[in-house]
Design goal:
alpha/beta, nine-stranded parallel β-sheet, Xyl_isomerase-like_TIM-brl, IolE/XylAMocC-like, Xyl_isomerase-like_sf, Myo-inosose-2 dehydratase
């Protein structure tokens, strides 16, 4: 089995800043994503959340549902409370045939606040790693019993952002917890996606492929910008249009026999970065990198 190439609707409409692409119909996102060459989409806020509604829409566009973001709060909730809270999302993913759930701990997060510099994000309470790891593992064991594995998404503006924090999470959780490697977020956080992938390649079960414009990232850091303002300034772009070493990363994934989705997820302002143009560019680069690495 080879990898599949998917895309997140953030290219057309932003979930954290709905004014970006707010008037773009879902049909346009799906039409253009398919035209660009992608086989599947992740969920976005324009998608219906009932499988009987979503299945025929995706079928008409010859697309699969890849996965979808879930906002976890296991630092505040019990495992039982989280399991109860996740049911609508989990049942949708199951019904749509998804194999992974994008899970991010959002307790205290600031990535959706345009007025908050990303430097003011919450820090993970060091004394709670063992407890949190046990909770997340138990939660992931439950979702896995339902046929869907947790793919933990390290994310700017949250308690788990840096390489060291991802290492700690992996060290304190069991194999039930997979790792979503996001090339752009780990680079933004000062890390190296190849180093992270090399350490945890056997745990990686989902990959978000975004690139970084290094000069704009430097400016964002110098100005102590918020995550959303960094997005608006153009920090992120599609694979092959920035500084991330995708050929090197994909060699690591090939050696680890990775067989999941490679998802273009590049938050940009669609009024500046024409969605179909960038979706096509991202697909073509991603396909070439994956083929050269033997992943396709």
């Amino acid at each position: 089995m080879s990898v599949k190439l998917g895309i997140n609707p953030l290219t057309w409409a932003n979930d954290d800043l709905p004014s970006l692409g707010g008037d773009t119909p879902l049909a346009t996102c799906l039409d253009e994503g398919r035209q660009a060459g992608f086989a599947g989409f992740e969920l976005g806020h324009k998608f219906p959340r009932a499988p009987e509604l979503l299945k025929p829409i995706l079928h008409r566009h010859e697309l699969e549902l890849v996965s979808g973001w879930y906002s976890g709060q296991l630092l505040e909730r019990s495992v039982e409370e989280e399991i109860a809270a996740v049911q609508p999302h989990l049942q949708l993913l199951k019904a749509m045939g998804c194999k992974v759930m994008v899970f991010c701990e959002v307790t205290g997060c600031i990535h959706g606040r345009q007025d908050k510099p990303v430097s003011e994000r919450p820090r993970f309470p060091a004394e709670r790693w063992e407890e949190y790891g046990a909770r997340l593992t138990e939660f992931a064991r439950y979702t896995q019993s339902q046929g869907v594995q947790v793919a933990y998404h390290h994310h700017m503006g949250t308690v788990i952002e840096t390489e060291a924090e991802v290492d700690a999470l992996m060290e304190h959780t069991g194999p039930e917890v997979g790792l979503l490697l996001d090339t752009g977020h780990i680079t933004f956080a000062g890390g190296n996606p190849i180093d992270l992938a090399s350490r945890w390649s056997k745990r990686i079960n989902h990959v978000h492929c975004k690139d970084i414009r290094a000069d704009i990232l430097r400016e964002a850091r110098n100005r102590n910008a918020s995550f959303l303002n960094a997005v608006l300034d153009g920090t992120f772009t599609v694979p092959g249009d920035g500084c991330v070493d995708y050929p090197g990363l994909f060699r690591v994934l090939k050696e680890a026999e990775y067989e999941g989705w490679l998802v273009v997820e590049a938050e940009q302002d669609p009024s500046v970065a024409h969605p179909l143009t960038y979706a096509t560019l991202g697909h073509n680069h991603l396909h070439a990198f994956a083929k050269d690495a033997g992943l396709l």
